Amino acid sequence: MPAPRILSPAFVRSLRLLGAIVTATVTAIVPAVAVPRAAPDPLAAMLADDWNDATRAAVAERVRGLGGAACATLAGYAAAPDPRSREHAVRALDIAGCGSLGDYQPFFADHAPWVVNAVIDAVAQRGVTASWPFVLAHVDDRRRLVSDDGSWTIEDAAHRALRRLTGQPLPFDPDDPPAARDHAAAAWRAWFTAHAGEPPASWIDSGQAAARAALAGSDPAGRMAALETLALSDARGLATLRDALLRAPGEIEARLVCTPEEPPRVTEIVPCALVLRNAAARRIPMALGDAGIVLAGMAASAPDQPGQEQPREGRGSSGARGKGSAARPPTASDLRGRFVDLAPGASTTMPLSAGPVATAGRYEARATVRDLGAALPGPPGGRPDPIEATTVVRFEQ
After folding, report:
1. DSSP-derived secondary structure letter, 226
2. Longest CA span, the chain
3. Which member of 159, 328, 341, 350 lies 3.0 to 4.6 Å from 285 by CB, making a disulfide possible if both were Cys?
4. pLDDT computed for residue 264 by the predictor
């Protein structure tokens, strides 16, 4: 056998150099083959972005494009690192109409406050009654959320959701001291201990009966809880709510008071108030819209009609115009947070302001507020809507 040939180090280096030259030459001649990249998911960017009407519309369109995979796709965002993406994914589940417990369960372990709030809102909106243990766990969660829509606590959202899921008018006031709110939370736990095994349909039926009983009584907290619960139940509680808000003509007296410290100048704003008083011998519940005031200049009467004045073209106004009966009929949910419940002889005051005006003179001030209960669709009807009152204000130059 011939002896093995030993290559010299110089020869080895020459071979390595030659290989490098060949590789570089081939690389220069043969273009690199581009590997196609998957397009980024636009939904992920939408969920991570700030939300407005345009963003919501875009998300709704994207979700529709997902078809039957929408709910599972959105539930997968429970693992997203950004809490805003997780919150928006939950809200998108609601937009997509996802209504099963499994759609929301991946988010139940999430402790981010906005995610918790979104889940509570969504399961209540979609009527996911099996989610009640999650909602009940947050019935005393007092973390406060602040947004352009206002400020509220998670416990407030949880109480509202439980009322909607069960129809039960258990009293709760977010402005009560902590001890009273602890008592309200304990009442929900006791109720579920007694009724969790019953079918949800029976919850709603017993809740309607409890609401009617509360409205027949005189306890202010129980009556207000019944009104708010019926407003949350939409069509299921509409007839009961409409009957509760019935009132006869003359049971509510309206008075407009404008009290400037001295005769106002045309450039000044006059403080006014629309006062609604219960003139009946029973408690009167109402759901009130936004009050408004309009000024109309008054022309002097003709010489042969002393002491009288006739309305003329308006010269100035302040505040939003009250919504008249031609406005869109409200739904039960429009009445939420709008209730007042007046005891006999009691009144509620709605602050307003009048002015400035264009020219000096006497002006009729007309204040208007819509009775939303009177405008609910369906019989009975014919109740006064809106509520109005007038007074006269003189402006000086």
Report:
1. H
2. 147
3. 341
4. 94
